[in-house]
Amino acid sequence: MKKQTITTLIAGLAGLGIALGAATAHATPEADRQELIKYFTNKYPNVKLEDYVYGALAFDADSKAQYESIMEFPPFGSEIDKGQKMWETPLKSGKKYSDCLPNGGKNIAGNYPMFDEAKGKVVTLHDAINDCRVANGEEAYKVNDMKTMGTLTAYMRTLSDGMLMNIKVEGPKAMEAYNDGKKTFFTRKGQLNFACASCHVQNGGNYLRSELISPPVGHAVHWPVFRGGDNLVTLQQRYQGCFQQVRQVSPPQGGTTMNNLEYFHSALSNGLPMKASVFRK
Amino acid sequence: MNSLRRNVLKSAAGAGTVAVAVAAGLLKPGQALAAYPRSAYEAKSLADAMKNMGVASPADSKDIVIKAPDIAENGAVVPVEVTSGIAGTTAIAILAEKNNTPLVCDFSFKGGAQGFVSTRIKMGATSLVRALVTAGDKTYVAAKEVKVTIGGCGG
Amino acid sequence: MAEPMRIRATMQGDVADIKVLMNHPMETGQRKDAKTGQLVPAHYITTVTATLNGAPVLEAGMGGGVSRNPYLGFKVKGAKAGDKVAVNWVDNTGDKNAAEATVG
Description:
Shape of chain A: globular
Largest interface: B-C, 40 and 37 residues
CATH superfamily of chain C: Immunoglobulins
Number of domains of chain C: 1
Helix content of chain C: under 10%
Largest sheet of chain A: 3 strands, mixed
Strand order of the largest sheet of chain C: 4-3-6-7
Helix content of chain A: 25-40%
Number of strands of chain C: 7
Mean pLDDT of chain C: 95
Order of helices and strands of chain C: EEEEEEE
Number of helices of chain A: 11
Structural class of chain C: mainly beta
Strand content of chain A: 5-15%
Number of strands of chain A: 7
Low-confidence stretches of chain A: 1-5
CATH topology of chain C: Immunoglobulin-like
Strand content of chain C: over 45%
Oligomer: heterotrimer
Structural class of chain A: mainly alpha
Radius of gyration of chain A: 19 Å
């Protein structure tokens, strides 16, 4: 496949007042996050930063009210119960997930993805769960399988509800992975020639056709989601959907591109509280 | 309404819900029928549904409050809440006019149960959601339009 | 095979606020299976009954138009903490389910 010419949006965003350091030595993840927050809070002064965890719902009261109503007693309760059963079932070695994950699996989701210096790459929560499985006599789950990894994490991630997103980017190799994710986010792709940023930054908070677009700040804290109340979707499953929607062959879930993207994307939500397994349209 | 109940209890056509419920010990034979006959649930138009429910011309009432979205997030799961301020409310029925089968659900209240119900319904297209309230011998109605959109970019 | 339903019942003043989440596919019979192209047969709860300390408080009819995993909220005046709420449902195949809860 011939390498397509790609154009990044970063320089273009300067026109919107967002000064994200593309390749300068001054670019830090925290600076990127603050720049985006400044951009959005200036554009939408009436939306509180803490409400960005609700995505598009923070910008429309009618949608938010439906979310609140459904979340009072969500229809996917039995799916989460299935995940709980998976979580509590001992692995072949006799040990449980809570024995091999840090802190028994509680309040850890906000630390992932993290850069593993020993492995020299970004490691996601799914990777940590699979490491646990393999170390205890089980086969790794396919990270794109909603029935296994999706359902398990629909419960497991709730053990970190309330935890503040806490992605660390320290050291040159971690920074490289972060910048790779940032590049994916800001690069135009696919037949529609859109970058993630085309919709979510340039049009975050706006309507594109019938859809109200969510800003990227607050995105990564609320996964997996149950679309329509019963269709389980993990974050990388959603990335895949976005790639397909701009008519780009999606990189594989769990691969370097997707993991680095999740690394960058999650850092944008640092300081915001996690809440897993929520309703979305 | 009473003759309809008697007919359903007697007739074989009503064998679906009532007979099963009686066999399960949920409804005693002869106990007042709460749910409308299945023919009301199978009716494909609002007019036929109401006919099979035995409801003629309900009076519009401002004392019925329907809490439902202006635009449904997802037509598969639309939260609808009906509060009846009409004294002596004994039943509420919810109909979605443009659904294949407009009668969605109905509720009969006994003992101290209040004229209030909250549920989630499916809507196939933008339409009026009607709440029919029964109080004594009379029925009343209110309606609210709920818009349903198809598609979008939700993954 | 019917999974257990959940009931939450709390007092708000002198009114018991009762919420029920049932587990049921609520198939209308109109939906085509994505893989086989065949219509998925109608399979939905037709009747729900609720009692408070054994006395009927609610009788409901449903069709396929109620959302999957039906949710139901209703209120009973004059109830008190410690009262027993029992909910039963029957579906169009004759399958049934029952659950109980204590008003908190």
